[in-house]
Amino acid sequence: MKRLESNLLNMVLSLTIVAVAAAALLGGLYVLTAEPIAQQKIQKQQAALTEVLPNMEGMTIAEGETVEGQTVYKALVGDEMVGAAVETAGIGFGGTFKVMVGFDKEGKVYNYKVLEHQETPGLGDNMAKWFKTEKNNQSVIGKSPATDKLQVSKDGGDIDAITAATISSRAFLLAIENAYKAYNACQGQTVDAATGATQQTTEAESDTIEIKCQAVQDANTDVESQNNETL
Fold this sequence. Notes:
The protein is α+β, with helices and mostly antiparallel strands.
């Protein structure tokens, strides 16, 4: 086989062939792996919903609805809302994390599940268990932003921060509060920013919230820019 002459045209031709072949290979791999990855994500999400919501006879979980920038999954017994799971996000020390937070009918945290995180092993990644451990003032289980100060004790709150991971702790607790706001929005309630107490909305506000609750499911967004200021 005759060797191609080494010139600019042949070099460009060779690089083009290699690039096209690499692109075709990557495209083929994406097609082969896209569906299994999507199925795995759905299974992980369903497992998280089951874990964070109370197990009640006859309970069904509705399709996700985008409310207040979070994805809300209502738990229903018949037509009655008996709780909800909220998929929310925060920005910790290591980057963005996602968490599924389950609330009972009274708006108290029933359980939570960290879905994704980039936190430091042994420090920020302890959020997966720290805030559900019944030790000192660590746990948020059974508590609600309406009646409890779900901020770190260093900031005047009721919750002990993860040891040597205050930034991640603040971000996690803010994510819980954002999830609670979305939960209340689906019930026609708002949260008083100063006191944390819930208030019934006016009829006009309820109509607006109802429209939000009917929106199609969308990707969960990152926490607002004010999160960075809080951190």
